[in-house]
Amino acid sequence: MNRPTIQATSNIDSGTGGPPVIRRPSSLRPQFAPPPLKRRASVFPSYLRLSAFICGSLFCASLACGADVIDVERGETTVSATRPARLSLDAAIAGLKTYRLGESRAAMHSLDAIARETAGKPEDRSKLVKSLAGLVASPESTSEGKAIACRLLALTGSDDVIPTLAPLLLDPGLADYARLALEQIPTPAALAALREALPKAPAKAKVGIIATLGLRRDAAAVEPLAAVLNEALAADAPLAAAAAAGLGRIGGIQASNALMTAAERAPAVVKPLLADAQLVCAETLIAAGQGADAAGVYQRIYEAADLPAPQRVAALRGLVRTADIKVIPILSAALAKGGPEALAAAPLVAELSGAAGTEAAVKQLPSLAPPVQAAVLDALANKGDRVAAPAALAAATSADPAVRAAALRALGRLGDASAVPVLVEAAATPNPAQDAARSSLDLLSDPGTDAALMKLAADAPPATKAEIFRRLAGRNAVAAVPLLLAAAQDADATLRAAAFKSLGTLARAEDVPALLTLVKRPPAAEDIDAAESALAAACGKVTPPDQRAQLVLKDLPGASPAVRASLVRVLGLVGSDAALAALRTAAKDADPAVQDAAVRALAETVEPAAAADLLDIIKSATTEKHRVLAMRGYARWASSPDRKPADRLAMCKQALPLAKTPQEQRLILAALATIKTAASLAEVAPFLEKGPLVQEACGAAVAIATPLKPTPQVTATIAKVAEVAKDATTKKAANEILEKAKKPAP
Q1: Fewer C-beta within 10 Å: the chain N or C terminus?
Q2: Are strands 76-79 and 21-23 parallel, antiparallel or unpaired?
Q3: List of residues 6+ apart from 113 with CB closer than 8 A
């Protein structure tokens, strides 16, 4: 279908006078008729209403903004330099009566204003309506004027204007305007006028009238719409589709019977459209409490072998909603067929009410094709009826990967502790369903699941036991902490690693002493990091927060250098003022390992006050390693958005003279790039002149300057970037900033 093209472009022409004019495409002029109907019938009514609405919206928009011309065909809008003078009602009516396209729209501007002003003033509004009705009824009025008058009557009219509008329903050029005006009058008389015009209206107008009657759900229109449908079935498919859609929207048993009768003798091309209408109609029956009648509609559609599968499945879903247990044999038969239709029907198992539907699906499950089995298992899981748990448990050992995965997924919702062995076996063995098994173990809601997992772990091989530990952590099974503490000392390294990792999740404040013991006497050197992480996590659960470091601090004095280094690393992870004080002391420890641990902890701690300590280390470090570590930590704080830009800039200024190597300077440049101020740009500028960091400085300068106002200082620095930058993206960004600087300020 050739739709009107509407563009948002505007063409300002101060030389054009007069008020706004709507120009519709040439295919619609001069009769204002909608374009020819060539699309699928089921969307015709809504398209006609949309077309009319668009034109009306353009009209209203032009009135509101004072547009001189809105040309739908060319997509141009011309705005008048001056709005015409306001006319009186009589003068405006006289002007609209003779209005032609392209002429002054002063009359329309005035009538629009009068319509707004008369709201809430019955006498003035009545006078306006009578004047508009007289214009529409006058044979001397132009079609353009009548069309605009109909628009205004749609907003202001009542039953008084129905005799004036009704004859226009038979006018091919004005039928849509009259119909839309009547559509807005919420009285039986307006509907009666539409019904009366239906048999006599032109074909195009009939489609619009049918759409309005359907929209208004006019029960009295069922018989005339049924007559139109039966007459159009063989000769006019679009009109038949429109009538069917209208009947579907009106709904009720009478409309349903009319659609059923038509479907029995409809040509093949129209049957799917009638089925759509019947499905809509069935929804109205359900809403009216006539579920049994709706079930009959759904069953007829489902049993119609000549209808497309999507409509038949939609009907089957309707049967599930309305036919209760009577639908079970029908759904079972659909599943047994296999193929796409069975896959589409499988999710409906979840919508079956009661245990009978679950039991039927479970009984049928082994006989279904594997893809359908998997889909039914997913549906049973969604239904959540635990009656299906044994079937899911049996299917979890299926040879088909899709069925096995679906069964393992279902056990997470349907199963209990008895499913733990099957799920653990699948979770501990690499296979396509491993993730499904792990997820189900985490989801099992049976209170006995944690105990079942711990019991199974007692005799499980190390790999399986490690998987059980991970699942206990996923379930937040704090009761497993004693088991994990014991496993953290096992001879198997893999098992110890899994135990420490799970302890990091599950250990509580009361478990800190036991973890401290493991940190001070780790089972093996390779376990130190994992033990420290678990201890830090447990300390993080101590309340109040300022006490989190105390249990670690009390073991620090007198400990061996290796233990002190471990405890220092833990303090760095825990944080607090007391922990920071201990790190400062440890950074001056005589033992190199303790000192190294302290510097690293200060560089990585979450305590902002550590920045000052890191600056001191940068100034006094005796090893290059510690200088770099301290500079990295300091640059991290200088880049932190939690600090004020001025404070971060001051930090960078302090660090720049201390940055001795390009590596250290690069860290400070990166921090400066996060500070969007002219002062930070000034700190970057010297690096643009020469040296190994020119290109890094170019990137930092562009990042800083992009949001800044293009002051002379900024443009001078960016001009240097444009000159020396080698990276194409950086050079382009610099040139864009310079181009922006040339434009006058708004």
Answers
A1: C
A2: unpaired
A3: 86
Residue 12 and residue 67: Cα distance in Å, rounded? 10
> How far is 215 from 207, CA to CA, in rounded Å?
12
Q: What is the pTM of this model?
A: 0.70
| H helix or E strand, kind and range, residue 23 | strand 21-23
What integer pLDDT is reported at residue 235 of this predicted model? 86
576-609 exposure pattern, b = at least 16 Cβ within 10 A, e = fewer: bebbbebbbebbebeeeebbbbbbbbbbebebee
Give residue 22's pLDDT band: very low, low, confident or very high (50, 70, 90). Answer: very low
Query: What dihedral do alpha carbons 170, 182, 3, 104 form, nearest 10°?
Result: 90
Axis-axis angle for helices 175-183, 44-65 (nearest 10): 90
* Chain mean pLDDT for the chain: 87
Q: Mind giving me the DSSP string for 598-633?
A: HHHHHHH-S-TTHHHHHHHHHHH-SSHHHHHHHHHH
Q: What band does 156 get if pLDDT is binned at 50, 70 and 90?
A: confident
pLDDT digits (tens, 9 = 90+) for 635-687: 999 999 999 999 999 999 999 999 989 999 999 999 999 999 999 999 999 99
Which pLDDT score, from 0 to 100, does residue 56 have? 47
Q: Which DSSP category does 643 fall into?
A: S
**How many Cα neighbours within 13 Å face the side chain of 694?**
14
CA distance 377 to 440: 14
CA–CA distance, 725 with 697 (Å, rounded to integer)? 9
Q: Write a three-state SS string for 27-44.
A: HHCCCCCCCCCCCCHHHH
Buried b (16+ CB within 10 A) or exposed e, 160-172: ebbebbbebbebe
* Percent of the chain topping pLDDT 70: 88
Cross-sheet strand order for the sheet of 21-23: 21-23, 67-71, 76-79
Query: What's the distance, CA 576 to chain centroid?
Result: 41
d(C-alpha 213, C-alpha 209), whole Å = 6
Whole-angstrom distance, CA of residue 199 vs CA of residue 21? 34
Pick the range with the lowest mean pLDDT from 325-329, 401-405, 636-640, 695-699. Answer: 325-329
Angle between helices 328-337 and 354-364 (to 10 degrees): 30
As given in the structure block, the two tokens for residue 533 are 């992480």
Round to whole Å and give the CA distance between 272 and 308.
7
Q: Which SS3 state, helix, strand or coil, does residue 587 take?
A: coil
If we measure between CA atoms, which residue out of 641, 700, 640 comes closest to residue 665? Answer: 700
Residue 259 has pLDDT above 90, yes or no: yes
SS3 296: helix
Residue pLDDT, tens place only, 462-484: 999 999 999 999 999 999 999 99
For residue 677, CA distances in Å to 681, 701, 734 come to 6, 10, 16
Confidence of residue 85 (pLDDT cuts 50, 70, 90): confident
